[in-house]
TrEMBL record, chains A, B:
Signal peptide: none annotated. PANTHER family: L-THREONINE DEHYDRATASE CATABOLIC TDCB, THREONINE DEHYDRATASE, MITOCHONDRIAL-RELATED. It comes from the Bacteria. This is Threonine synthase. Keywords: Lyase, Pyridoxal phosphate.
Length: 430, 430
């Protein structure tokens, strides 16, 4: 990757931020407002000073080749030239997430009537969800900003990822979760940090509290609040990997779960960047969003053919998708509509069915978010919204042991027997 | 890898096994008795017909280069030339396990007083344990033998791996577990298969029942019974990966958990093969075995300086290591003694401490088996049995969410608060 490192870009050292080193954010040029286009310099900012729109990282990309990427490490840092991270990112202790399996799902495809289906399986990330990707990018930013606390509000997976990455990096972590969160996700954060804070309320309440703390306390990097622009870029790696693992080409259709909506918008952004960089051929890709009916503000707006998202109070077992006021919901609507995709939602029972569909057919145990995505895929085929003859990728973002309760009453031993052959033959299983 | 595929080896088609295709077992030549050296042809055999000793796969290896391996897939099949699998193994639906992270553990090393420590983290395998490696090799053998049922007795992780791999491959699975197994591991098998059988008794009882069924029923491939020689070879990939990920060289010391003892013997075998093939330089590697005191027959024999393993009734939270009569225990003793290593054991409280040590310092949440290995590493340093100045690798074989109960009473939220900044500042965390 030496050509990437040596290329001279327009990215200056942020002048009014002493202590920020040259090249701290790689090829990133600025933070640009998604609404008005106003550019501000790279820093711990997330809202446009002109219009309060969300800021997003923009880049001056050098020439990047497939060969340079393929010669990189087997984790997201193979794409470091396309992320707001320094060229020496691999030297900082981090979780080394990504480059997860892309599995052809012949059995599930047959079951659902799809000719060519792939599962991008992010359940095998270091803390078993896609959040390790975004947190790795946020950790890099927090490090470059010399933050003293690494923090987040979370529905669970993010708390796991932040607490783990912080432990490995040796930075103090404080993670905030709704107090009614599944026990496994609680313990799975508390093993890494002594500062897990349970908050009475739903995710949106926790998120609001985090924003308040971020405004009051100095040196706190809330990954999905004040370093959100850097954090969010990590989701692009899902898109990069899908394209690279398909042999440097884009699929026809992708089904992606929608919580804040950030992941979906970033996968779409990633595809566009690969095309612009000449790394894949341009082609239409239909993007589909998946929600649980108990928290489906984006799907509701899509079906009502309106542009505004009306916030809801979540009531679903898909807690990692239970964001009632999704920050990127309007961009999800725009992308799904403009690409010819759709946003759909399913009931909690269909979520459970989706979990078992994926487990029984492909040997992947997903959490409720993945059950939602697989269940929505099924519904999209059944309702004719998704073309079963086109190549389709469904993203599994998390892991079933974190939401065990969702299925623990539905499956179990077929028989409990004494340790004798006679007892076994009596079961009729042989 | 074409040179590997095209090379002509001495491996014949097993003459008296019609239906076994040419090349079904790659470069494997025969099954050789570990005790008397007697060779039998490749088949679903596991005991020497001459002396009843355990059979192990032997090979006629072709020339294999680092470059060929590095050009392979990012899973265990990059080493297919060194495994008893066909050259087209990647075309069969399988879990694509392996090539997991090797992380330098600076924080944990500092805590334990080790100068250069690495963690080989197999918790990010498809079903979150190293068992996906061995099961992938067993599945290949079962497929080549045209088995109709894919089965195992298991302490939990193996059941997860067998049920998942079978689901993806589309072969009927039946998995047998002790009825007192942790609930997460039960559900984590039952999601994949409708034939999970809970057996009243400990693992050794379940194992005995499985052997009986394997003897009575035709067409059943019990991965760790009648196809055990093929299955066990999968553990070699842990050794291959450690060497490749260190930059094609061997470490000085390795700490490995001991259940049946198979993994430890196979990592040792892998290092030897890499040396013989000229893929790494020869050097002394001290091998250490880790057990929980509540099931420590090998450690007990090691300390008593005897050669015979006296079976025990397991009583430990490290259930995935709770094999009271370890099949490869005597070989573990031999290897640890002859390489200058040791076998050590720790209490359940030290196991819990090991889990938290790894989580708090490196952001890896391991199960009780990994807690045992990390805890034993600590004890080995403290007792002067392991040289802290030498480069050391510790293997993490599994994942904490499967044995949540071990730590769920020890960690939790630091505070539960209402969603206000005042409530937060009152905690004193800021």
């Amino acid at each position: 990757m030496s050509t990437v490192a040596e290329v001279e870009t327009a990215q200056p050292t942020p002048a009014d931020q002493p202590g920020i080193r040259e090249g701290a954010f790689g090829n990133a040029r600025s933070l640009a407002c998604r609404e008005c286009g106003n550019e501000v310099e790279l820093g711990p900012h997330y809202a446009c000073p002109e219009c309060f729109g969300p800021l997003e990282v923009s880049y001056d990309f050098p020439v990047v080749t497939r060969e340079e990427i393929e010669a990189g490490p087997r984790n997201i840092w193979r794409y470091k030239a396309l992320l707001p991270v320094p060229d020496d990112i691999e030297q900082s202790p981090n979780m080394e997430p990504g480059f997860t399996r892309l599995l052809q799902a012949r059995n599930l495809g047959r079951e659902l009537g799809l000719e060519k289906l792939w599962v991008k399986d992010d359940s095998t990330n270091p803390t078993n969800s896609f959040k390790d990707r975004v947190v790795a990018c946020a950790l890099s930013a927090a490090t470059e900003f010399h933050s003293k606390v690494f923090a987040c509000p979370s529905t669970g997976n993010l708390a796991n990822a932040v607490a783990a990455a912080g432990a490995r990096a040796g930075i103090k972590t404080v993670v905030f979760i709704p107090s009614n969160l599944e026990k496994p996700k609680q313990v799975n954060s508390a093993v890494y940090t002594d500062s897990l804070v349970a908050v009475n309320g739903n995710y949106d309440d926790v998120n609001k509290l985090a924003s308040e703390i971020a405004g009051e306390e100095d040196g706190w990097a809330f990954v999905n609040v004040n370093v959100r622009p850097f954090y969010a870029e990590g989701s692009k790696t899902l898109g990069y990997e899908i394209a690279e693992q398909l042999g440097w080409r884009l699929p026809d259709q992708v089904v992606i779960p929608v919580a804040s909506g950030s992941q979906l918008t970033k996968v779409h952004k990633a595809f566009g960047e690969l095309v612009r960089l000449g790394l894949v051929e341009d082609k239409p890709v239909k993007i589909f969003g998946a929600q649980a009916t108990g928290c489906s503000p984006v799907s509701t707006a899509y079906k009502a053919e309106v542009d505004a998202i009306r916030p809801v109070k979540p009531d679903t077992i898909a807690k990692s998708l239970a964001i009632g006021n999704p920050a990127d919901g309007i961009y999800v609507l725009d992308i799904c509509r403009s690409t010819g995709g759709a946003v759909e939602d399913i009931t909690d029972d269909e979520v459970r069915e989706g979990i078992l569909l994926l487990a029984r057919h492909e040997g992947i145990f997903t959490e409720t978010a993945g059950g939602t995505t697989v269940g929505v895929l099924k519904k999209l085929v059944e309702t004719g919204q998704l073309d079963p003859t086109l190549e389709t990728v469904v993203i599994n973002t998390g892991m079933g042991l974190k939401t065990l309760d969702a299925v623990s009453d539905q499956v179990g031993p077929a028989a409990t027997i004494d340790a004798s052959y006679a007892a076994f033959t009596a079961t009729g299983i042989a």
